[in-house]
């Protein structure tokens, strides 16, 4: 009886030329087949997909064997040019009335402030910040009557200025992506425009499709995927938009890795450009790669593997994509690394106006784990990596480092007597006199034995690192797996966290790539 009433009502509305204010009904699980357009319209109304004041503009059978109904609708709302500003499209399966796709859009009837060549918004007038706008947009989304089976989460990645050049600058554009168990599918979206001053929802657009979310029985974990992505990602040389005066290293904007096979399918990945470039680089490919990798974040997402009018099939993929906080060029292009200076530049060669973010923990774990480091050894003082011109020497667990660089790092002084081959380390009123080739030293006139003898290697005098512990009270710890000598010049113990050690390894690896220590 209930369905019959809705069908008759839909016929009446079609005859009148529109859909009037009618109470929407809840969805029924045992819906009958849709044999007529009146039944299709009634089903759409039951799912609360058609605005009360909309007119049906299309009701046609589509798809193979005409097994689907496509409905179009518009309201009477128009802008000053007479163009409709509120409408949508619905696709239903005729055999059981299941919703297969749905879109609806609503734009302001006054298009002032929309379109190209807009003036920048005066931020001093803003009363609703982005965080508040997200709350307003979420409330608006949750308040919609549509019976859509969907989870929506905020898309954290900004759109380029170019792609949003026609959007009103007086609005916050909040994009929600469809999700399943917290994993995003960014090809289905719900965009809400919130006024920066009033907080009013001024416009919106939704795009939804029936979707099969595939959950494989076995997938790579993020750590394994990250290692594969780090190995497969490669920088390339480009003159970009700076002409022959600019030579830079760049990477493609994102990489998409099959979460099961661990491969980069051609369907989802842009080929690395192989354009002819002018100029020769002065920094190594390894250094450029490490710098460029710091731009990226990794996320497990869904990507489309099959589409039809009956619905979508999506599967999990790991995406390595440029972080939201990375400064981008107007077109959305990511920064490049100047191949001559190693400095960050935008895509036309101008210095960046904002600092680049630090590398993420996943990247450090993948690129600078203890099993992947290539530098021979390194030093950190008070938790800060110290760049050296000569790598420390490690023999049988004993670390010797350049006496001059070590004393400079701990803010001490060093005197060298070439005639006697003696060196004197001075700090805080204490004097440590050592001699090349000997493990004996004088500390304020008293003889002490060093851990190992002072050595001259390639013209540089190296002293045992533990000498500063004996002489100046430093706390010294050798982290063998990280090949790091850690020094603190106070009473605090040397107990770095795993995260702190990872960051130190990253810095040392970058220095190694910069200077080519072997």
TrEMBL record:
Coiled coil regions, renumbered to chain: none
Domain of life the protein comes from: Bacteria
Ranges of residues in domain YcdB/YcdC repeated: 37-208
Record-linked InterPro entries: Cu_amine_oxidase-like_N, Mao_N_sf, YcdB/YcdC_rep_domain
Gene3D superfamilies tied to this protein: Copper amine oxidase-like, N-terminal domain
Domain Copper amine oxidase-like N-terminal: 381-485
Protein name: Copper amine oxidase N-terminal domain-containing protein
One Pfam family named in its UniProt record: DUF4901
């Amino acid at each position: 009886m209930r369905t019959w009433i809705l069908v008759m009502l839909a016929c009446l509305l079609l005859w009148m030329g529109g859909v009037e204010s009618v109470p929407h009904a809840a969805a029924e699980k045992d819906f009958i087949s849709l044999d007529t357009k009146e039944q299709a319209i009634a089903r759409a109304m039951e799912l609360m997909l058609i605005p009360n004041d909309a007119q049906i503009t299309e009701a046609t059978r589509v798809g193979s064997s005409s097994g689907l109904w496509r409905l179009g609708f518009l309201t009477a709302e128009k802008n000053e040019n007479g163009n409709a500003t509120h409408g949508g499209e619905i696709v239903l399966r005729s055999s059981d009335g299941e919703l297969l796709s749905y879109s609806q859009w609503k734009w302001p009837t006054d298009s002032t402030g929309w379109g190209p060549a807009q003036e920048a918004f005066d931020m001093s007038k803003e009363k609703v910040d982005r965080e508040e706008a997200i709350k307003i947009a979420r409330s608006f989304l949750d308040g919609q009557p549509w019976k859509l089976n969907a989870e929506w989460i905020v898309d954290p990645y900004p759109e380029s200025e170019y792609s949003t050049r026609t959007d009103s600058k007086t609005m916050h554009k909040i994009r929600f992506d469809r999700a399943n168990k917290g994993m995003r599918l960014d090809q289905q979206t719900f965009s809400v425009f919130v006024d920066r001053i009033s907080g009013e929802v001024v416009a919106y657009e939704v795009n939804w499709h029936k979707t099969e979310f595939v959950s494989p029985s076995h997938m790579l974990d993020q750590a394994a995927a990250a290692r594969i992505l780090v190995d497969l990602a490669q920088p390339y040389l480009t003159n970009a938009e700076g002409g022959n005066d600019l030579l830079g290293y760049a990477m493609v904007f994102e990489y998409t890795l099959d979460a099961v096979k661990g491969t980069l399918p051609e369907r989802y990945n842009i080929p690395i450009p192989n354009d002819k470039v002018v100029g020769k680089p002065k920094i190594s490919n390894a250094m450029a790669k490490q710098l460029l990798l710091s731009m990226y974040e990794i996320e497990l997402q869904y990507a489309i593997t099959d589409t039809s009018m009956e619905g979508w099939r999506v599967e999990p993929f790991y995406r390595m994509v440029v972080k939201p906080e990375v400064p981008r060029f107007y077109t959305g292009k990511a920064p490049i690394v100047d191949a001559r200076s190693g400095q960050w530049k935008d895509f036309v060669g101008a210095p960046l106006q904002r600092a680049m973010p630090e590398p993420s923990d996943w990247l450090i774990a993948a690129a600078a784990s203890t099993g992947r480091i290539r530098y021979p050894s390194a030093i950190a003082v008070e938790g800060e990596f110290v760049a050296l011109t000569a790598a420390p020497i490690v023999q049988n667990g004993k670390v010797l480092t350049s006496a001059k660089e070590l004393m400079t790092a701990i803010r001490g002084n060093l005197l060298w007597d070439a005639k006697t081959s003696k060196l004197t380390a001075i700090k805080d009123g204490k004097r440590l006199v050592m001699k090349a080739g000997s493990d004996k030293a004088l500390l304020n006139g008293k003889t002490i034995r060093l851990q190992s003898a002072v050595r001259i290697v390639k013209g540089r005098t190296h002293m045992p690192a533990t000498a500063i512990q004996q002489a100046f009270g430093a706390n010294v710890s050798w982290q063998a797996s990280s090949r790091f000598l850690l020094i603190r010049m106070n009473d605090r113990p040397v107990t770095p966290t795993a995260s702190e050690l990872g960051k130190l390894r990253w810095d040392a690896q970058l220095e190694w790539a910069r200077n080519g220590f072997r």
